[in-house]
Amino acid sequence: MKLLKTLAASTALAIGLGAAAAQAETVRIGLVVKALGIGFFEAANQGAQDAAKELGDVEVIYTGPTSTTAEGQIEVINSLIAQRVDAIAISANDTDALVPALKRAMDRGITVISWDSGVAPEGRSVHLNPSSNALIGNMCVKMAADVLPDGKGDVAILSATPTATNQNIWIEEMKKVLPNYPGVNLVTTVYGDDLADKSYRETLGLLKSHPEVKAIIAPTSVGIVAAAQAVADEGKIGEVMVTGLGLPSEMAGHVQSGASKSFAIWNPIDLGYSATMIAYNLATGKATAEPGGTIPMGRMGDLTLDENLDGAMADPFVYDASNVEEFAKIF
Amino acid sequence: MMAKALKNRDLLLGLVLIALVLAIAARFPGYITPTNLEGIFTDTSILIILALGQMLVILTRCIDLSVASNLALTGMIVAMVNAGAPDLPLAALVLLSALIGLGLGSINGVLVWTLGIPPIVVTLGTLAVYRGVIFVVSDGEWVNAHEMSEVFLNTPRILFLGLPILAWVAILFVLIVAVFLRWTRTGRAFLAVGGNPTAAVYAGLDVGRTQFLAFSISGLLSGICGYLWVSRYAVAYVDVARGFELEVVAACVIGGVSIAGGIGTVTGVVLGALFLGAVKNALPVIGISPFWQLAISGTVIIVAVVINARQEKTAGKLILRDSHRTH
User: Fold this and answer.
1) Whether pLDDT at A38 is above 90
2) Which residues of B touch A252 (CB under 8 A)?
3) Mean pLDDT over residues B293-307, rounded?
4) d(CA B272, CA B254)
5) Residue B88 burial by CB count (10 A; 0-12/13-18/19+): exposed, middle or buried?
């Protein structure tokens, strides 16, 4: 199976090379998003255009369906195949449903990668994750350590439900890196179930039962907002800092109020930029997709691939008072 | 003396509530400080207001499962209006929330009254419909703290005589509903219609109209709670208050409101809501595994209901044949 996949990938690459050579001048990359008109993807397009400018001989075709459906994306893929683009970089609405259409694209020599939201391995060569669980866990603890006075103090985690897989993985990763931050003392984890009112109440309870807590890490966008509001309502701004994962548009008010100094999430501009760089390098044969290999991503460094040809772009991007307003307009 | 006191359901529930608070305080002393108790009351205000509306509905032998969806939809709309037109005075927004809530509630009322569809079916339907409409009007987008105006967010938090406005609003509604049920002709009709619809019809009361009124009031209160909720948590999104309707019904049942209609007191409902509020606010501080928390709050509710609902009404003798409900 694996051999087949590698074979398919390399054949695709070989044909891709041929196609690129035939056209010689511009490499055309179709950047397919989940749906048009979403701030996050508009920002990714901005990054893709930056990459195109930097590379010079690249044209990025930004496209996608009008609603987030796999059917709509299949139509878009078919039209890109008809236009004989050199590469397709897609954020998929469905892991499996797009595979046949993308396989057809690869059969025609088009380089296919997925980014942000992945396609099953047989439908693409490389998948670009915005970040990795380990990087996310580390960043959460680092942001908390940064707001603690002298990097020392008690920290608590506000999660979603006790059974949420991604949350538990991130919390696990946070615990793994704790030895690197000797000042950070993780006292408890509470669960707000991704409900605004329960998260709020849990935060109030936390402030009462652990009055010495100086930072709250909420790796959930509902939780981080509720925690910031609870801290503000308790008059603990400045004493207790809220950090974690959230969206700039949702957190802008709380950064302004001072309840949160910084938080993180992927940067869509960097993501679009990196996806374009990877698609370009694969389509032109400047890099090959192989397990354990690396692909250059311009200013974002190199992407290291694992055995499934997945790779993580970078640390989550940190937002604070200096940039949150700007990104709040985007997503 | 003691035996007599135990027969008074409200008094009994009050004692159980005090016992619960003391038991929690034994494990976490900070729980019983005046500030914390005030906090619990404020936190429970929205539940109290919704439970009052729900009680009126249940009294007339109906049930309103759409309250949380109504709250969420109204909250989303006023938040969006506030974000779009920050200069609009707060009074206008509160009025708007009341009107939207009233409209949504009377849709339930009309369906139950004129079409005679069972209330549980009607409100299960509107529960889903209203929730779906939120997605349509908001496009799935959130309205966030920084998009809402200061006045919109902070008015319910203003302290007046030591309590935030939010708590005073709840107290105000408690008084209004208490007076309404006890001393107005329409208020008495709620008890009569639920207690014995047949007799109510013979007494010249319109059962359907009373039920319509109950749904409308419940909707009105849900609408106002929509604003209160959104300003309290400073965010409006599709999933706001999902599942909260069950808590509202639970508050009524714990408070001794008979699901069969006709029996219920304002005091009981307030105590029932406070009981739930006390449990919800205790769970985060007493340090119990989150997996146990749900089981514990469920058990506590059942125990409270068992204690409080043992004494069911001694059914009156039916001397007249059940009349067909007039529409």
Assistant:
1) no
2) 144-146
3) 79
4) 5
5) middle
Range of the domain at B92: 53-275
Q: How confident is the model at residue A1 (pLDDT cuts 50, 70, 90)?
A: very low
pLDDT tens-digit map of A64-97:
988 778 899 999 999 999 999 999 999 988 888 9
Nearest CB to A196; choose among B157, B233, B287: B233
Contact of B144 with chain A, judged by CB distance below 8 Å, is answered with yes
**Domain carrying residue A204:** 133-265
A253 and B147: CB-CB below 8 Å?
A: yes
| A303 pLDDT more than 50 | yes
* Number of structural domains in chain B: 1
- Best of A159, A168, A208, A260 to disrupt the B interface (most B CBs within 10 Å) is A208
pTM of the model: 0.79
Decide if A331 is inside a domain.
no
User: Which has the minimum average pLDDT: B136-140, B187-191, B295-299?
Assistant: B295-299
Q: Give the lowest-confidence range in A98-112, A265-279, B168-182, B289-303.
A: B289-303
DSSP state of B278: H
Flag if A202 and B239 touch (Cβ within 8 Å): no
Which residue intervals of chain A are DSSP H helices?
2-23, 39-55, 70-82, 99-107, 133-147, 165-177, 196-209, 221-233, 248-257, 268-283, 324-328
Query: A197 vs B233: CB contact, 8 Å cut-off?
Result: yes
Q: What is the CA radius of gyration of chain A?
A: 22
With a pLDDT cut of 70, the percent of chain B lying above it is 91
Q: Does A323 fall in a domain?
A: no
